[in-house]
């Protein structure tokens, strides 16, 4: 099954790569400017390991409990792989200590209180600085997370003053059921302002399976792709042979 799954993933990766290359060309940008982040949530560690075999070394998760166990499993499956793990889902402050044990980057920092919890956890773990992105709310929906755009400067300034965090840029999720282009345009302006105040904050994480082309057209440097690479959730059960494996 692993050979068949690897072939399946390779074909999907080829298709995603073609989309990213075409979007970069259309935007007059180099392919090297956009990082492909594979979102492996709900899929087994075996899939993540196969993706590393295909050359993907940036993997992302949405939930700490799943990610913590999966990162350990993948390390056992591919001890030689140099994987960079990203937390892209909403994060509660009480999970900060756990997250800093496996994540190299947290893209979903949306409040000073969460930033403070992560900073404290990094210092307590005596680990290198944690790369973070501020998550901006570009649809105003508090249920989806994100810092309101007028408060972005304050959050970024706080992160820049911490001893354990490194501000790398901004992340956002496009509004549901709407043309994402206007939201991505608004995000691009916010990211540009952030870079003026914090020159090291060069990352703009925007775009997923359904809207990566629009995001790249508006300057995204990181697209977070799950479904287009790994398929629907049911595929995870098929790949592992166990109905209970799709978490």
From TrEMBL:
Kindly state which keywords UniProt assigns to this record, in alphabetical order: Pyridoxal phosphate
Cite the Gene3D superfamilies for this sequence: Alanine racemase (3.20.20.10)
For activity, the cofactor(s) needed are: pyridoxal 5'-phosphate
What InterPro entries does the entry give?
Answer: Ala_racemase_N (IPR001608), PLP-binding_barrel (IPR029066), PyrdxlP_homeostasis (IPR011078)
GO terms, molecular function = pyridoxal phosphate binding
Decide whether keyword Protein biosynthesis is in the record.
no
Write down what this protein is called: Pyridoxal phosphate homeostasis protein
Species assigned in the record:
Amycolatopsis bartoniae
């Amino acid at each position: 099954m692993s050979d068949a799954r690897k072939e399946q993933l390779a074909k999907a990766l080829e298709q995603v790569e073609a989309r990213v290359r075409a979007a970069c060309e259309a935007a007059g940008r180099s392919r090297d400017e956009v990082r492909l982040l594979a979102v492996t949530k709900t899929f087994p560690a075996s899939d993540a390991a196969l993706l590393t075999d295909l050359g993907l070394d940036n993997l992302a998760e949405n939930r700490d409990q799943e990610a913590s166990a999966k990162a350990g499993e993948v390390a056992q499956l591919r001890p030689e792989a140099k994987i960079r793990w990203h937390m892209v889902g909403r994060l509660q402050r009480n999970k900060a200590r756990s997250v800093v044990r496996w994540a190299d980057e947290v893209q979903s920092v949306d409040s000073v209180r969460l930033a403070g919890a992560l900073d404290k956890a990094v210092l307590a773990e005596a680990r290198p600085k944690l790369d973070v992105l501020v998550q901006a709310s570009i649809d105003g929906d508090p249920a989806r997370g994100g810092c309101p755009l007028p408060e972005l400067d304050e959050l970024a300034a706080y992160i820049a003053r911490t001893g354990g965090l490194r501000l790398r840029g901004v992340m956002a999720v496009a509004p549901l059921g709407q043309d994402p282009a206007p939201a991505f345009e608004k995000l691009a302006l916010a990211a540009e302002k952030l870079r003026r105040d914090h020159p090291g904050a060069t990352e703009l994480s925007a775009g997923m399976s359904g809207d990566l082309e629009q995001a790249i057209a508006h300057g995204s440097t990181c697209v977070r792709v799950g479904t287009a690479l790994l398929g629907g959730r049911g595929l995870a059960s098929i790949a592992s042979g166990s109905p209970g494996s799709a978490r």
